[in-house]
Automatic annotation (TrEMBL):
Residues 100-127 form a coiled coil. Keywords: Coiled coil, DNA-binding, Transcription, Transcription regulation. Pfam families: FCD (PF07729), GntR (PF00392). Residues 8-75 form the HTH gntR-type domain. This is GntR family transcriptional regulator. One of its GO terms (molecular function) is DNA-binding transcription factor activity. The keyword Transcription applies.
Length: 224
């Protein structure tokens, strides 16, 4: 492996590790991305780290401020309002195509994922529920077998992951989310692609409304 290839590999690995730290909340929205500390943490030099930061800026997960450096991006209320209707359409189409393509083996695999989802909901395990939820969404996208949908959804999902976990903390949202997922899966199992698409769009828009409700609750607490 030549030096150029090694540097490319290191910055790809660094970018992936930074995404993980952002998505798990270790690097929260708005936090400063200290290059010295990150180099120590990731055990890399400044060059691949700076290339990785450029990747995150291009993806919208970080922002660069001249003379100040990079910060983890903060998703705004406008971002949420603009992205959710779009991703609802895209993921709705993905589950439509997944319903048309799914084999019985695929449905059996999805059944196991939904059983995991139910267990985590019953136990109130939000982080584990979110992981199973994400695996189900990714399974639908894989079954759709449409690279343009996958690319578009992936780009938007990276931004929404800055806020999506928060909506599961809204009162009653965990059980509501589970009910929505089961409705999508029930439509897929009976091979009703149109109903599966509609159920998925409803699920994404309900996530949006849960985030808005959390924002309203937060505002009312501050005001009081």
């Amino acid at each position: 492996m030549d030096e150029r290839t090694l540097t490319h590999s290191l910055h790809d690995q660094a970018a992936e590790r930074l995404r993980e730290l952002i998505f798990d909340g270790t690097l929260p929205p708005g936090s400063f991305l200290d290059e010295v500390r990150l180099c120590e943490r990731l055990e890399i030099s400044r060059t691949p780290l700076r290339e990785a930061l450029k990747v995150l800026v291009a993806e919208g997960l970080a922002r660069h401020e001249p003379r100040r450096g990079c910060f983890v991006a903060q998703i705004t209320e406008r971002d949420v309002d603009e992205i959710f209707p779009v991703i609802g359409l895209l993921e709705g189409r993905a589950v439509f195509e997944a319903t048309q393509n799914a084999t019985q083996a695929d449905i059996n695999a999805l059944e196991r994922l939904h059983e995991r989802l139910e267990r985590h909901a019953e136990d109130g395990e939000i982080n584990e529920y979110y992981a199973a939820n994400l695996a189900i969404h990714e399974a639908f996208i894989t079954l759709a077998d449409n690279r343009w949908l996958a690319q578009s959804i992936g780009d938007l999902r990276k931004i929404l992951r800055l806020a999506r976990l928060q909506q599961l903390h809204a009162p009653g949202r965990l059980n509501q989310s589970l009910s929505e997922h089961l409705a999508v899966f029930a439509a897929l199992k009976r091979r009703d692609a149109a109903a599966a698409e509609q159920a998925m769009r409803h699920h994404l828009l309900a996530q949006h409304e849960a985030l808005r409700e959390l924002a309203r609750l937060h505002s009312s607490r501050i005001a009081s």
